[in-house]
From TrEMBL:
GO terms for molecular function: ATP binding. One of its GO terms (biological process) is regulation of cell shape. The keyword Ion transport does not apply. Belongs to the FtsA/MreB family. Its main location: cytoplasm. The keyword Iron-sulfur does not apply. ATP binds at T11, A12, N13, G155, G156, T157, E203, K204, I205, K206, G283, G284, A285, L286. This is Cell shape-determining protein MreB. It is found in: Cytoplasm. Signal peptide: none annotated. Forms membrane-associated dynamic filaments that are essential for cell shape determination. Acts by regulating cell wall synthesis and cell elongation, and thus cell shape. A feedback loop between cell geometry and MreB localization may maintain elongated cell shape by targeting cell wall growth to regions of negative cell wall curvature. Keywords: ATP-binding, Cell shape, Cytoplasm, Nucleotide-binding. CDD domains: ASKHA_NBD_MreB-like.
Length: 329
């Protein structure tokens, strides 16, 4: 008998939750292909190690961009590889799949995600919106007649939503999140230190000393790259305060989206949000000072999910159980 699975199809990472087992896969959304033959050489962690380090005939592709499928065939190949790796198919049956998407995607983009899941081995495919699933995974009871607000900052999109009675009441989705932050760090180091660095290095800076509020100027990281003037390798020191400056514009946009959502929220639900606070999920929630930034800008308590990176994948497990029990929300 096939085991039902929940997929957090992220721009940066794919997480898969197998019913009864929990999260069993967490790998980068990267596929390495041979451009001469079109053959897939590596998927996930192995392909991620190749980013920026491959010869001309090998390309490391991220088939998802800004939370949606940019390359359908490569996405299908990646999903098929992960599903086969987990051995969740039965002898004569295929698994049901619950897959997640940002709130602002078009009906064509929704169909593309569903088709990719079906072609990679799904029997029946259910599509749910990321902030709803993230809220469930973070432990919020969104099925009661009360307001819950979640801000999910992933790799490709930042989703802000207010939920009640199991549905999204008001939401905004921005196609700028972790990837845009990495690009902002690359641009900042280039302009300030005249040093070219790759996306791997930018991501390492973000993870190790990334801060968005009241950063510690004493916190630093040694960064290696290529000097713009000489073309030779060079090392510089980057501070947390500099990272805060680099990320300022992106964070301002996400705060702006959260303010818009709050302005459109019915008064009764707004009162609930003041009582219950806002839940932060996604990899971006791990940036130092992020809860203080949102709390100071939105004047509402802000909470960090226990496992922000896993919230969406955990939520798919809960919702799969509900589907299995034929609960109707």
């Amino acid at each position: 008998m096939a085991k039902d699975i929940g997929i957090d199809l992220g721009t940066a990472n794919v997480l898969i939750n197998v019913k009864g087992k929990g999260i069993v896969l967490n790998e980068p959304s990267v596929v390495a292909i041979d451009t001469k033959t079109g053959k897939v050489l590596a998927v996930g962690t192995e392909a991620y190690r190749m980013v920026g380090r491959t010869p001309g005939n090998i390309r490391s592709i991220r088939p998802l961009k800004d939370g949606v499928i940019a390359d359908f065939d490569i996405t299908e190949a990646m999903l098929e590889y992960f599903i086969n790796k987990l051995d969740v198919k039965g002898v004569l049956s295929k698994p049901n799949i619950l897959i997640c998407a940002p709130t602002n995607i078009t009906s064509i983009e929704q169909k593309a995600i569903i088709q990719a899941a079906e072609k990679s081995g799904g029997r029946k495919v259910y599509l749910e919106f990321e902030p709803k699933v993230a809220a469930v995974g973070a432990g919020l009871d969104i099925f009661q007649p009360q307001g819950n607000m979640v801000i999910d900052i992933g790799g490709g999109t930042a989703d802000v939503a207010v939920l009640s009675m199991g549905e999204i009441v008001t939401s905004r989705s921005l196609r700028l999140a972790g990837d845009r932050m990495d690009a902002a760090i690359v641009a900042y180091v280039k302009n300030k230190h005249k040093l070219l660095i790759g996306e791997h290095t930018a991501e390492k800076i973000k993870i190790e000393i990334g801060a968005v509020y009241d950063a510690d100027p004493e916190e630093t990281i040694e960064v290696r790259g290529r000097d713009i003037a000489t073309g030779l390798p060079r090392e510089v020191e980057v501070t947390a305060a500099e990272v805060e400056e680099a990320l300022h514009e992106t964070m301002l946009a996400i705060v702006g989206a959260a303010k818009e959502v709050l302005e459109q929220t019915p008064p009764e639900l707004s009162a609930d949000i003041i009582d219950r606070g806002i839940m932060l999920t996604g990899g971006g929630a791990l940036l130092k000072g992020i809860s203080q930034l949102f709390a100071s800008e939105l004047k509402v308590p802000v909470l960090l999910a226990d496992a922000p990176l896993d919230a969406v994948a955990l939520g798919t497990g809960t919702l799969l159980d509900n589907i299995a029990h034929h609960k109707q929300y």
